[in-house]
Amino acid sequence: MEYKMKLTDEQKAILNGAKGETMAKVMETVVMFGDIFGAEKLIPVTHKDGHLVTSFGIALMKPLFSTMDKLIEAGIKTEGKFSVDPRPLDYANVKCNLLEKIAFHVMYKKQADYEEQLDKVGLRDRDSFTCTCYLDEVGNIPKKGDILSWAESSAVVYANSVLGARCNRNSGMLDLFGSIVGYVPYFGLVTDEGRKAKWKVIVKTTEKPEAQILGSAIGMKVMEDVPYVIGLDKFIGTELTDDAKAYLKDFGAATASNGAVGLYHIDNLTPEAREQGEALILPDAKEYIIDDAELERVYNSYPVMWKNKEAKPNLCFIGCPHLSYKQLCDWTDNIEKALEAAGRKKVAVRTIMTTSPQVKNKFMETGYYTRLMRTGVKLTSICPLMYTNNPMTKGRAIVTNSNKLRTYSIARYYKDEEILDVLSGKEVR
Amino acid sequence: MKEFKGRVLAGGEWRGEAVVSRQGVNTLATFQKSALKNAKQVIVSDQNNADIYGKNITGKALCLPITIGSTTGGLVIQTVCAMKIAPAAFLFSEHIDSLAASGIVLARIWENSDVIAIDQLGEDFLASVNTGDIISVRQDGTVIIE
To answer: Global pTM?
Structure first.
């Protein structure tokens, strides 16, 4: 192939087939991808443990399965061990009717085969299915400055912004290929220049903005650019506490799904903003002011996609991205309080919370778990989006506090407080 | 007639109908419903994109600034190319984004796809082209709105 970037002798040899035809194609893909962005070279992946976005064995993804087969046939594995996004199904905790089960069976009939393929190529273990691989309990945690070959938009934006690692918004397959060859192209968010902010976002709300609406507003405005957010530290502090990290996890997921943000800086809080401050903002940066009215405008712009727009909610998902341990504890406290105030013992709407297998195990060892189960809430480690992909679920009036889930499904977004109203049987708009 | 010149990422000669999104195209949200149904055509399912929601984009020129959204995006493009239900051409007004670029590269190398991709056609291109316009694409990256 013709290429423009400078390659080392080792990289050239791989490209020319020294490690086999399939490995050459993997390298060709990485090089051609980098050339499109004018990458001058490939740089080593320093955090070897990857994270893949593609966790689901949807039967129609034939290119995925055939590529995996080719890799396995050639004996190719990743350098480190990778985690991967959540599984699609958990019938024990996410009950389905017969029609839904039939549809799921058809949709995800390749799941077991695909998980075997993942094992053979370098999956860390069978509990490594979560979108929040970077949480302490899960343990796929890069250091500041590490170069990654990850995908999953919410994980990439978290790793870049909160951990200070360096990763482009890789697509599925490119995440895996970078982890196989051990190199990624040098462009965009892995460069100093690519991490500068093209937007100065000023938060002027009167109270702490809902993370998922603020992220949505910023994502829709800046698209793939880097925003530098001023005024948020007033509400979430200047230390990366568990609460601040959970806020940024949800905020980032919304910026990445409602737009294409791969990195944000929060003034006085995120690592690079603490070090470099407003020097990170490019001189010609555009400005976006967010006040109460702007957040309300964005919130009111979300279309209601339910078949019956006047329906009462009958299913609620909380936890996209997967909830942290602290969030699970907080939701337990808040649901109990809301139910007590409403004179109820159980949630009024079937409710499913999602978290990583590791956080779930930790949570199950505490009294919080018993309390949460007492309210009737179910806890699982699936991806709610993969549940809502089932055409048999489209008639349900699903509510969620996830702006990512709203974007990719018919689920209707509600603020956290409104979700509590729904769960305690109150009327909501 | 208006002529524009972009950068060729995956070249080809083509003439046909344009479908235009003036906002970023969320790849997963756009294609997922049709892909999941194993449909013969892509009817855009992205509720947040009024420009193209409900439109058939198979075999047409999808004119857009960039793609946005989930990092499954590249694999989704590769899949719809393999299913032969992709747009015939992706015409980007801006520099292509990393997810769409992945999809185009994966489709070319692993699926031998002949999907056309041209980027950096400029803001004026996206402001000038309208859904339903007939456009011609040339091997050298020239795009003509007829």
So the answer is: 0.93
Q: Are B18 and B60 in contact (CB under 8 A)?
A: yes
Strands A351-355 and A378-380: parallel
Q: Model confidence over A288-326: pLDDT tens digits?
A: 999 999 999 999 999 998 989 999 999 999 999 999 999
- Given the DSSP bridges, would you call strands B67-68 and B89-92 parallel, antiparallel or unpaired? unpaired
Largest CA distance in chain B: 38
Question: Helix or strand or coil: residue A132?
Answer: coil
Q: Which residue has the tokens 């018993």?
A: A370
Q: Do residues A389 and A288 touch, judged by C-beta distance below 8 A? A: no
How far apart are the C-alpha atoms of A140 and A132, rounded to whole Å? Answer: 9
| Residues of A with Cβ-Cβ distance to B26 under 8 angstroms | 257, 407
CB-based contact B99:A224 (threshold 8 Å): no
Q: Is B46 strand, coil or helix? A: coil
Q: How many helices (H) and strands (E) does chain A have?
A: 18, 13
Question: Rounded to whole angstroms, how far apart are CA atoms A303 and A316?
Answer: 18
Closest to A216 (Cα-Cα) out of A294, A273, A270: A294
Pairing of strands A42-44, A197-203: unpaired
Q: How far is B105 from chain A (nearest CA, A)?
A: 6
The partner residue sitting opposite B29, judged by closest CB among A58, A107, A407, is A407
- For residue B141, which of B8, B4, B15, B3 has the smallest C-alpha distance? B8
Range of the domain at B35: 2-145
pLDDT tens string B37-79: 888 999 999 888 999 999 999 999 999 999 987 888 899 999 9
Encoded tokens for A125 = 């273990």
Do residue A260 and residue B79 have CB atoms under 8 angstroms apart?
Answer: no
> What CATH number is given to the structural domain containing B121?
3.50.30.10
Contact B97 A257 (CB under 8 A): no
The DSSP H or E segment spanning B100 is helix B98-111
For residue B78, which residues of chain A lie inside 8 Å, CB to CB?
63, 173
Q: What is the ipTM of this complex?
A: 0.93
User: How far apart, in Å, are the Cα atoms of A78 and each of A71, A207, A273?
Assistant: 10, 46, 33
What does the DSSP assignment read for A10-31?
Answer: HHHHHHTTTT-HHHHHHHHHHH
Q: Is B141 on the interface with A (CB under 8 A)?
A: no
Could you say which DSSP state residue B7 is in? E
Lookup result for tokens 């727009």: A309
Nearest CA-CA distance, residue A257 and chain B, Å: 4
Q: How many domains does chain B have?
A: 1
Distance from the B40 Cα atom to the nearest Cα atom in chain A, whole angstroms: 13
d(CA B62, CA A59): 26
